[in-house]
Amino acid sequence: MAKKILITDDSPFMRKILKDILSENCEIIEADSGDKALEQFENEKPDLVFLDIIMPGSEEEEGVRVLEKIKEKDPGALVVMITAVGQKRVIKRCNKLGADGYILKPFDAKQVLEMVDEMLGTSCNS
Predict the structure, then answer these.
(1) Is there a cis peptide before residue 12, judged by omega within 30 degrees of 0?
(2) HSE of 20 in the Cβ direction (CA atoms, 13 Å)?
(3) pTM for the full predicted model
(4) Contacts of 6 (CB under 8 A, 6+ apart)
């Protein structure tokens, strides 16, 4: 059975890039906001979540809030933070909340696929 990955980013372009990289052998679910990500997480039970840190929402770092909520619901959930923000403070906070990995924008396909292989023990690309 194909692994299910939730891609959360407010940018349709970034979601498309990730979807194009991952969609060959994985089922992709998308969310364009923190609230939609939480809803999709609850309904779809993805194997892995890619989560942008900076998105419009209730706070500047909406992705951090979503990470916290996901880990409250399921401490074992695999969440990879995606960000252009290289701020040590934000990364430190995400580490405390249980983030499982980071990918910095701009990223390349190889980097994303290696992260998926590491997290899920399987490839989303043939």
Answers:
(1) no
(2) 8
(3) 0.92
(4) 29, 30, 31, 37, 40, 41, 44, 46, 48, 49, 50
- 66-114: pLDDT as tens digits: 999 999 999 999 999 988 766 778 888 999 999 999 988 888 899 899 9
- The one-letter amino acid code at 41 reads F
All residues at 6 or more sequence positions from 114 whose CB lies less than 8 Å from its CB, including other chains: none
Report how far residue 81's alpha carbon sits from residue 79's, in angstroms, rounded to the nearest whole number.
6
**What pLDDT is recorded for position 91?**
83
Name, in order, each residue with C-beta under 8 angstroms of 40's C-beta and a sequence gap of 6 or more.
Answer: 6, 8, 29, 30, 31, 46
Domains of the chain, CATH where assigned: 3-113 (3.40.50.2300)
For the segment 18-65, what is each residue's pLDDT rounded down to a tens digit? 999 987 788 999 999 999 999 999 999 999 999 998 887 766 678 999
